[in-house]
Amino acid sequence: MIEVILITGRTISQGEALEKGKLYDAYTNATATCELDPEDMERLGITEGDTVRASTETGEVALKAVKSTQAPHEGIAFIPLGPWANAITGSGTDSTGMPSFKGLRATIEVAKDASILSARELIREVYHGV
Question: Could you state, in order of their start, the residue ranges of all structural domains in the chain?
Answer without folding.
Answer: 2-126
